[in-house]
């Protein structure tokens, strides 16, 4: 036996109360789960008296598609107890790849907040090999992004697709799913995914249904239409016969704050009618994205080069500014003091400042700041929007269909000029500390279920997500009395408290609260 963990309070991932158990590991698998007993011959023995042992957390919603290539350690997630990252969300993925459109895909992936990454692969298999060759500390499971499909199948993806182009997208998706991708994602507020209509999306969900793969959607956001977006996702998935994972459920329109129950009623009704449906949520009352997402859709159609080329033309500029003044996503009102720049390329003076503050300093209107920053820096400008309420978020988090997902990239903790959303550094400990122990919204066993077996089951991720014989030894050890997030919006790059050990495939990637440098992660494939 390689490792023997003694006297742990084991949360097995099913939601059941903890049991005091000894857990043995050999060859990267769990080979013993027994009541406490005498010592055993093992390469290493660790006494966990008073500590919780749980399956490693499966982060069902991440954007680590290229961040794990840049920095395979994934410290921000490993230190939280995450052992598996699910990438390819919100319509973004690093595959498929058209040989003549590498630059288009590179620019699109830059919206995830990472440095532009040269594309050195041609599809799912070669991207998976590139990820494996990087030797990530964490396991990686991949969804296929709708925007990537559009970029690969369409010479101009910023328009409605023809039947032939939809058929080509379906073929590319089928190939990726057959090779091991876990499903499809859309990003229906992100261009070019936003250009896909229900018929196009339905055709792709049908491909997922044939593979019993998951459909994850960042739903279409229109002012006053957040509840309608839920209906669209449910109706489209039902007609196509698929399984729905609704991404980062939230109410971002101030006109809809306080309407959490109306949103949840839709999911309850869909589940009662037989739809295989769930949603994920992260425990913060703010979102984050590339600033360019909030420009009028037509200004994004030509990509960053056209935006740079046109934004000073008087007629084009006045039309763009007039549209921006009406609000974003069709009329959600601007609260410029709630929109804070987190990264801005070489402009190290901007992170941490609101658009309102920058506008005052530059003596410009806020809408001009928005347009000019996007034109100058493109996808490098990232923002946090404080456009949610904790009350709505906790209603979503407590619901039985909810799964915890960070929506954050795996990142290093070393200090940098940017100030990314703290979700990348604190999501899972924040739930365990703030919303289990300090302001109880969930029981500890149920919280662990939402982080482990629930996401593993959604993905059909076999052999993970539970403390059970034969399962992969992906495990986390934490102290329920002290676990807490320490990342803040002002200082996000901080490790959490109370997470002592993270074990991936039987090896410590975090031990005694410090990263070990081990890189035992694997690329996981659907059905393998």
- Gyration radius from CA atoms, angstroms: 22 Å
Strand percent estimate: 15-25%
Shape: globular
- What is the CA–CA distance across the termini? 25 Å
- Specify the biggest β-sheet: 9 strands, mixed
Summarize the structure.
The protein is of the alpha/beta class and 528 residues long. The chain is 33% helix and 19% strand.
Describe this structure in words.
The protein has 528 residues and is α/β, with parallel strands linked by helices. The chain contains 17 helices and 21 strands. 33% of the residues lie in helices and 19% in strands. Strand 10, helix 7 and strand 11 form a beta-alpha-beta unit. Helix 12 crosses helix 13 and helix 15 runs antiparallel to helix 16. The longest helix has 17 residues. It is globular, with a radius of gyration of 22 Å.
Summary tags:
single chain, 528 residues, 21 strands, globular
Blueprint of the fold:
Layout: E1 3-10, E2 19-26, E3 29-34, E4 44-47, E5 52-55, E6 57-59, H1 67-70, H2 75-78, E7 82-87, H3 102-110, H4 124-133, E8 139-142, E9 144-145, H5 146-153, H6 163-179, E10 183-187, H7 198-211, E11 214-218, H8 226-240, E12 243-246, H9 260-272, E13 277-281, E14 287-290, H10 303-310, H11 314-325, E15 339-344, H12 355-362, H13 366-377, E16 381-385, H14 390-398, E17 402-404, H15 423-438, H16 444-451, H17 453-459, E18 475-478, E19 499-504, E20 507-511, E21 514-515
Parallel strand pairs: 1-4, 1-5, 6-7, 7-8, 9-10, 10-11, 11-12, 12-13, 13-17
Antiparallel strand pairs: 1-2, 2-3, 5-18, 14-16, 15-16, 18-19, 19-20, 20-21
Helix pairs in contact: 5-6, 6-7, 7-8, 8-9, 12-13, 15-16
């Amino acid at each position: 036996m390689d490792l023997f963990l003694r006297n742990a309070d084991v949360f097995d991932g099913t939601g059941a109360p903890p049991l005091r158990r000894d857990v043995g590991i050999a060859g990267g698998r769990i080979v013993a789960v027994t009541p406490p007993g005498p010592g055993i011959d093992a390469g290493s023995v660790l006494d966990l008296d008073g500590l919780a042992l749980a399956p490693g957390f499966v982060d069902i919603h991440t954007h680590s598609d290229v961040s794990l290539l840049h920095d395979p350690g994934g410290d921000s997630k490993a230190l939280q107890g995450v052992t598996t990252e699910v990438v390819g969300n919100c319509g973004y993925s690093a595959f498929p790849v058209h040989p003549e459109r590498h630059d288009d895909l590179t620019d699109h992936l830059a919206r995830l907040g990472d440095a532009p990454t040269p594309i050195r692969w041609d599809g799912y298999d070669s991207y998976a090999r590139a990820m494996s060759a990087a030797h990530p500390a964490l396991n990686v499971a991949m969804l296929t992004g709708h925007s990537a499909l559009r970029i690969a199948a369409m010479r101009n993806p910023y328009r409605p697709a023809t039947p032939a182009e939809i058929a080509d997208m379906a073929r590319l998706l089928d190939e990726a799913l057959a090779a091991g991708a876990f499903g499809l994602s859309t990003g229906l507020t992100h261009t070019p995914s936003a250009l896909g209509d229900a018929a196009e999306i339905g055709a792709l969900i049908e491909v997922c249904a044939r593979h019993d793969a998951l459909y994850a959607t960042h739903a279409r956001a229109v002012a006053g239409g957040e509840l309608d977006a839920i209906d669209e996702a449910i109706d489209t998935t039902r007609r196509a016969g698929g399984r729905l994972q609704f991404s980062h459920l939230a109410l971002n329109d101030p006109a809809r704050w306080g309407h959490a129950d109306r949103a949840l009623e839709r999911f309850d009704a869909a589940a009662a009618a037989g739809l295989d449906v769930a949603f994920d949520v992260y425990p913060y009352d703010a979102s984050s994205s590339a600033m360019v997402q909030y420009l009028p859709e037509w200004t994004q159609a030509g990509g960053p080069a056209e935006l740079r080329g046109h934004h000073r033309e008087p007629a084009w500029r006045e039309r763009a500014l007039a549209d921006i003044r009406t609000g974003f996503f069709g009329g959600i009102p601007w609260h410029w003091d709630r929109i804070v720049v987190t990264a801005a390329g070489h402009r190290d003076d901007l992170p941490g400042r609101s658009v309102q503050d920058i506008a005052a300093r530059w003596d410009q209107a806020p809408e001009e700041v928005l347009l000019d920053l996007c034109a100058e820096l493109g996808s490098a400008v990232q923002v946090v929007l404080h456009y949610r309420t904790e009350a709505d978020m906790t209603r979503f988090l407590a619901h039985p269909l909810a799964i915890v997902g960070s929506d954050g990239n795996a990142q290093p903790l070393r200090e940098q000029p940017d100030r990314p959303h703290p979700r990348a550094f604190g999501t899972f400990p924040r739930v365990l500390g703030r919303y289990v122990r300090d302001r109880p919204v969930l029981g500890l066993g149920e919280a662990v279920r939402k982080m482990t077996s629930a996401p593993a089951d959604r993905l059909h991720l076999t052999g993970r997500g539970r403390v059970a014989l034969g399962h992969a030894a992906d495990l986390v050890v934490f102290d329920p009395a002290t676990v807490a997030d320490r990342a803040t919006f002002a200082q996000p790059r901080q490790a959490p408290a109370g997470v002592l050990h993270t074990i991936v495939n039987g090896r410590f990637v975090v031990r005694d609260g410090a990263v070990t440098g081990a890189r035992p992660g694997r690329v996981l494939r659907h059905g393998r």
